[in-house]
Specification:
The protein has 139 residues and is α+β, with helices and mostly antiparallel strands. The chain has a single domain, classed as 2-Layer Sandwich (Alpha-Beta Plaits), CATH 3.30.70.141. Helix content is 40%, strand content 17%. It is built from 7 helices and 4 strands, in the order βααβααβααβα. Strands 2-3-1-4 form a 4-stranded antiparallel beta sheet. The radius of gyration is 14 Å and the shape is globular. Bound molecules: guanosine-5'-diphosphate. Guanosine-5'-diphosphate (GDP) binds next to helix 4. Guanosine-5'-diphosphate binds next to helix 4.
């Protein structure tokens, strides 16, 4: 059985470009309900903690620097089949390979600065929501 929760971040590139509202609109229009949301500027320690699974990858340092380069929006989303449907909505990691109409295709410029994050499994969705939200922040 698939879960109904996923976690997203609108990354610093998208916030800088002023596309936060457009991306949130696409997410809501696609049927996702916002269960929790906040506007934050991560510290280096927080970004390293969030992306700890990627710490052996060659781009880890670049990824952390990018994610702390400006504020982001973090949100917990609800929909049936949330993880897979949200990955479809955002498109491939590299926006030039993402399907037409997907969020990354529409708003992102590169594989590194790709506008949004989406959890890759139900287990990670719950870990990532727990990283950013306390129980009382979830509606
Ligand atoms: P995702 O699940 O589609 O976000 O992709 P991954 O889990 O493979 O990578 C996590 C994040 O690391 C991506 O969303 C990008 O922001 C970043 N990233 C992926 N590949 C590269 C790369 O080659 N260089 C850099 N600088 N960042 C990358």
């Amino acid at each position: 059985m698939t879960g109904n929760i996923t976690f997203t971040m609108i990354k610093p590139d998208a916030v800088r470009k002023g596309t936060t509202g457009a991306i949130l609109n696409d997410i809501i229009q696609a049927g996702f309900k916002i269960r929790a949301m906040k506007y934050v500027h991560l510290t280096q320690k927080q970004a390293e903690g969030f992306y700890a699974v990627h710490k052996e990858r060659p781009f880890f340092g670049e990824l952390v620097s990018f994610m702390i380069s400006g504020p982001i929006v973090v949100a917990m989303l609800e929909k049936s089949n949330a993880v897979a449907d949200f990955r479809t909505l955002i498109g491939a990691t590299d926006p030039s390979k993402a399907e037409e109409g997907t969020i990354r295709r529409k708003y992102a410029d590169s594989i590194a600065e790709n506008a949004v994050h989406g959890s890759d499994s139900d287990e990670n969705a719950h870990i990532e929501c727990g990283f950013h939200f306390s129980q009382y922040e979830i509606i």
